[in-house]
Amino acid sequence: MPNPLDSLPGYALNRAAQAMMAELGSRLAPLDLRIAEASLLLLLGSKAAMTSSEIGRALGIARANMVPLLGRLEAASLIAREPIDRKSLAITLTAAGKRMLKKVETLTRAFEEDLLSRIPAEHRAHFVPALNALWQH
Amino acid sequence: MPNPLDSLPGYALNRAAQAMMAELGSRLAPLDLRIAEASLLLLLGSKAAMTSSEIGRALGIARANMVPLLGRLEAASLIAREPIDRKSLAITLTAAGKRMLKKVETLTRAFEEDLLSRIPAEHRAHFVPALNALWQH
DNA sequence: TATTGTTATACTCTATAACTATA
DNA sequence: TATAGTTATAGAGTATAACAATA
Predict the structure, then answer these.
(1) What is the pTM of this model?
(2) B106-132 tens-digit pLDDT
């Protein structure tokens, strides 16, 4: 039933991420948010104001792809842009954005708990450190 | 420097998979193969002949998306399709496909070793079991 | 009746090049 | 000179609906 690819770390990593992101996407759908949009709200909630470029660097999103992402959030009145100088814009959460953030935080907490609960207890503490070793820096 | 999302398992999972798949994609580029194509060759190498639907189920690829995938591999003369009955086709590796498979196996082995080597030793043995718990069945 | 292979289509995510305006 | 924000575009991955033919 299982195939020989299942023992490959890279294959397992890809399948697990695909499954979990599909699950998270389904849970976010009722809020009309995509994963990147929810991530952005969570990030802004902890860092106050950031520029588009700073957000992109933090989330691993290319600058060019930040434009439609911020555009959708602004169209939904969840964020606002205010000039810092004549070159940069500060992205901040609106009141509606902060209310949406609360929902995202609740939903995310439940999702992350459910994800961890699927991992056998003896492996659980090793999960995030192993993953972070693969991409940080 | 790090952001608060880094401690979330789902976020770390997604970033790690994104980074590792980008790395694998770069390594496969000289062979002119995409990740799904290389996965298909590896699968066929261990299972002899399979139908398109069986491959799709094994790799988590929708049947409709198997069509262009198999089309590219057939255009590259790496696979062949032979009728099983008047409804199904057996997908098999051609001689060129088997030669390419050897390259993919060598490359994949190196990639998987490099991936694991990035994970601190104490976390390494927990990695694949934790991931497989998230998506299998 | 369920499954296979297929077509067509659409949406999302990601990547690149180029441009302007400013620090 | 490097960076910010943007436009346009292309590629790749994924998802759905529908269809004819066959098991």
Answers:
(1) 0.96
(2) 999 999 999 999 999 999 999 999 999
Q: What is the 3-state secondary structure (H, E, C) of B7-60?
A: HCHHHHHHHHHHHHHHHHHHHHHHHCCCHHHHHHHHHHHHHCCECHHHHHHHHC
Contact B18, A137 (CB under 8 A): no
Tokens describing residue A127: 């999960």
Contact B48, A9 (CB under 8 A): no
Q: Which residues of B touch A11 (CB under 8 A)?
A: 39
Considering any atom of strand C, list protein residues whose CB lies within 7 Å.
A 25, 34-36, 61-65, 85-88; B 18, 22, 51-54, 63-64, 66-67, 70, 87-89
Q: Determine, for residues A9 and B123 on separate chains, whether the beta-carbon distance falls below 8 Å.
A: no
